[in-house]
Amino acid sequence: MxxxxxxxxxxxxxxxxxxxxxxxxxxTYELLNAERELAPAVWNDSxxxxxxxxxxxxxxxxxxxxxxxxxxxxxxxxDPDMTTPLxxxxxxxxxxxxxxxxxxxxxxxxxxxxxxxxAEERAAALVAELAPRKKIDxxxxxxxxxPTELFLALLGLPVEDGPMFLPHVEAIFGGFFASTPxxxxxxxxxxxxxxxxxxxxxxxxxxxxxxxxxxxxxxxLVAKIDGVPLTRDEVLTICxxxxxxxxxxxxxxxxxxxxxxxxxxxxxxxLVAEPELWPKFIxxxxxLYSLIIQDGRQVKExxxxxxxxxxxxxxxxxxxxxxxxDPRKFKDPDTFDLDREDLNHHLGFGAGVHRCIGMHLARAExxxxxxxxxxxxxxxxxxxxxELTERGGQLRLQSLPLExx
Length: 405
Fold this sequence. Notes:
13 helices, three-stranded antiparallel beta sheet, alpha+beta
């Protein structure tokens, strides 16, 4: 039986904020900042089991690289019993490294370069389609359709299947941070639906294999770990993990980036005039608007973490968003600074061996999306009178209504 939240936490302060809840836009960052400053480690009792929040840049960076006593058996600090399978995220070294070696070629800079012409073509086509409308919800339209099509292309699957994935990805992430049985059931149903889709795709590849050097599903079917082929369940779980993680983060990132530019016209005008600065804009956006607010680790055996006594099975929250706004590391951390010297020191993609496998793809597709949009629609604004909310658990603006003349 796992320890409950009613327990000895030594001298650690105790916080009660439930970060799974939706809030007014940008309120979560204020709460995270405040709790980072309480102490190097803070016990949070908002869930059934509770978890330890580690939030300062140097501490988070160090613990992200500690693999022996803080393990990836569960990566969601909110739920040590999370049942949604994730591969290779939930594996520990050396098994994790072996799976990553099979996947890395499809997310390398060279692979991203192969995908660039399609990304540019799809982004331009979507913007051309949306421009005459003068008003859209960016999050539900451009920000979701574009990354969905690219990810299907990366997997070698039909881009026209994109609309089918949208509600399933929503439900899966609802289940990650669920607080009701209905949300958990919807998440399980969505996982099963995506698994069934990929099962059909895998069966088709078994009959008609493609080049495993350029087709990811075909690569998984011939991949071997320690000389043993991947099981069917492993192949399906990898596809589902890559799809769900890649779609949600890119969509969410675009929402915060467009919100910033809609409310900071001076920055937008500078980027339109100097498009070579878009990569810098992406880096600073990923730092300032960290979507993945925590990277969870599970304590392997009883130990002390920054003065807090932890028991085997306890969860540790490694606060990526808090570390990225830590004044001990970044000057004026809550300010967007396109000319920041330590621009790429952020932890928006994590750190260590579990650093985001899709970071090169994410950077490239975000730059392409921004260029394509601003070439056609350089001036736009938020629709007046709309109250924006952000999703709990893994941040995202629930809607972003934009309009232009």
